[in-house]
Amino acid sequence: MASTYTSIGCGLASAFTWGVGDFTGGMAAKKANVFGVIAVAHGADVLLMVVVALLMREPYCTAHEMWWGVASGVVNGFALAALYTSLSSGTMSIAAPLSAVLAATIPVVYGALSQGLPKPLQIAGFVLAAISILLLSFPSGGVGKPKGMLLAILAGLGFGFFFIALHKATVHSYLWPSSASRFASALVAFCLLLGSRGVVPTRGRILWLTLASGIFDLGGNLLFVAADHLGRVDIAAMLASLYPGGTVLLARVLLKERVSRTQEIGIFTALVAVAMIAKS
């Protein structure tokens, strides 16, 4: 029972940490090239994790697990690029919950195929999630149709597969496969950066926002792995998918973002849907 409560705590902490990371990453992407933000943030994370892994003398993972780590990083790199672009070009408090709904759904489907069908409450959460997507997409009150919706959807799908891949990668160790994941996402972002234009964060406020996004995102990853190993992967992923809470809170307080009443209902519905899906 203690491990269950610890798993839930780690999952919720992962959600909050990821939410802060998405906010700072989205803020950095408003002023700098989104691929540059990810490349710099994740490149710094790789160096940090390798040093920590060596100091802690963590056992090496198998080649099979390392490849799953690489796969998770490739998917995460594209998903983060889509999310940060959506957050920087659209409304953060709409894009983040939409991506979370989809990110929460895929691990439950995976869990149903590998561990049996989800509970009735979780199925009801799927229905509520579909309703929330319609509400979030509905323009009203002069706010207009939110920008970046397609990118938020792609990001959510990517994060869903990222959860599963990271689960398969961290069977025997945490830091080495996570380092491989970070290296792969940084490499993907760097390759995309070569074919694009824009400011690369190298100094000042943009650099600090970039590094903060990397640190918080990395912390969210490690907390998710801890929640996964202490409980079930689908429940850990669902709790971690509550990450829009931190993003929405910071966007409302610091950016004074405005959304329509219909979209406010959609935001609340999306968060309730994720909570229902996460119910164990």
| Overall shape | globular
Structural class: mainly alpha
| Low-confidence parts | none
Residue share in β-strands? under 5%
Helix content: over 70%
Average per-residue pLDDT, rounded, comes to 82
> Could you describe the largest sheet, including whether it forms a barrel?
none
Count of alpha and pi helical runs = 11
Spatial extent as radius of gyration: 18 Å
Beta strands, count: 0
Q: What are the secondary-structure elements, in order, as H or E?
A: HHHHHHHHHHH
Task: Describe the overall structure.
The protein has 280 residues and is mainly alpha-helical. It has one domain (2-278). The chain is 81% helix and 0% strand. α2 runs antiparallel to α7 and α3 runs antiparallel to α4. The chain is globular and about 45 Å long.
Which terms would index this structure?
280 residues, single chain, globular, 0% strand, 11 helices, mainly alpha
Structure summary:
This protein is mainly alpha-helical and 280 residues long. The chain contains eleven helices and no strands. It has one domain (2-278).
Please give the structural blueprint.
Blueprint (H helix, E strand, L loop, with lengths): L1 H30 L2 H23 L6 H27 L2 H24 L4 H18 L11 H21 L5 H20 L9 H27 L2 H8 L3 H12 L5 H18 L2
